[in-house]
Each structure stands twice: as structure tokens, then as C-alpha cells.
Amino acid sequence: MRVAVIIPCHIHYKGQFEKLLNCINSLKEQTHPCSIVVGISFASNEYYSIFKNYVFPLVKRYAKFIVRREQTYQIMHIYNCLQKVNDHDYILFCDDDDTYLPKRVQIFVEISNDTNIIREKIPFHNEESEYWCYGMKPCVLMEFYSRSNDHLDLLCHKFGDIYLRNFLLYNQMFGLIVTFTAKSPLYIYDEQNENSITGTIKRKREFTQNTGLIDYMELSNQYLLALINNDIEKRDLIIKHIGDTDMSLNTIINRAKIDEFCKKLYV
């Protein structure tokens, strides 16, 4: 079985290069061989130069790179990489700051049995169904992007991967998701990375909790997530909390457009 692992990566600090190399090395050491495809973009010309002159020569034998000089969001990196691996039997994912244990790809292959979607359930992880928990046939991803064709602007956001996660969870056309739990997680999630999106959100929440201040940017983020997740209870709670600012939120966040997209995507 031909398996590809897609790594979406936007370089926005120097230490990220070391994490990316660790990620690629963990995939290179898989007991079942896999194609490694990295969609990469850069926050500055300096970071691009470091990649071109120092990082790329180290790993060009082991990975293919789809390079974008300007910032490219995670879900669009995945789209660009998909064009290179849609002839594979299965596609998995890895965030650039995370790693695989050596048998992860092999386990997915062993339990695939012609299943369209497989998920590794990671106990005690607060986002057990993030997109990188899944492996899938290319046709699943192609259907996702086909349905998203008129709403690519909504995918170009730091929460764009949540649409993919929900598509995998709620869409019924590909049959049941085969879920497994390993004795120890086969995917090593970097919980200590303060520079990640998750780390940034965590710091902001701690700041508002400690100071008692209202972070309206964080509230708008939570409002957007509630819309994407169709979480009516949470959405109404946020609206109640922010009161009159709800109208300005709906000016910034096109609720009607998101609702329309989600209905198209999740059924």
C-alpha cells in the first residue's frame, strides 16, 4: 500500500526548523515506507533563505516540498500537497512540530481493510479528533475540496482545519470511521510548544482569567468556532455575554455564509 504523509508548515520563528526536521526524521524512520510531502511557506525572506540554503539540502532526498513564499494557511497547504499524492492509496497528516512513533503508518495500513477513513483516538487529548488523527483515501480529501470550491476564503483561516475535521466526522457518504486506540499514542503531540496556535490561545485565556479583562478577539474566535462546529448552545452563550457587540461580530464574521458552507459540507 502506497501511503503519503502531508506536513502543512508556515515558518514564523527560527526554532520551527528544528521541529520540522524532527518531524521529517520520524516519518523517514517508519517501519512501513511513506512518501513525505511538505507544504511550506515563510513569514519572512530571511526564513526562506535559511530553508533554501541550510534546511532543504539536509532533507531533499527524503521529502518533496511545495514551496510558497507568502503566508499560506494549513488547509491550503494540504490542498497543494494533495495534487502530488492523489495517486497514493492512503493519506495521513502530521503537524510540523509533532512526530510519529515508528509503527504509526504500519498500524494504519494493517487495519485499513479498504476502509475510507481511519482515526487514531488519543486518550486525554482535548482535541481527540483534530485532522491529524485521521488517515484517509485521497477520494475523501478530493470530495472535501470539491465541496469547498466556492468557499476557499473561509478555509484560509487559522481555524480552516476545523472544517475538514467536521467534514470527516459528520459526512456519511464514506461509511463508518474505523477508530483505534493504541496502548501508547502513535502520534506525539507537542503540548509544550508555546509558539503554536494552541499555545497562543492558551496564553490568552490564562491572561484574561488572571486579569479579569474581556478579550474580544478571543471571544470572536470562540464565536467563529461555535459557528463552524454548529454549537448552538455555545454560540448563544457568547452572544449573551457580549450583548450589543453581537451585531459588530456578525459584521466581521459572516455567519450566514458560514452556515451555508457548513450545511453544504457536513451532509
UniProtKB/TrEMBL annotation:
Instruction: Give every Glycosyltransferase 2-like domain span.
Output: 5-113
InterPro entries in UniProt: Glyco_trans_2-like, Nucleotide-diphossugar_trans
Q: Which Pfam families match?
A: Glycos_transf_2
The protein depicted here goes by the name Glycosyltransferase 2-like domain-containing protein
Specify the species: viral metagenome
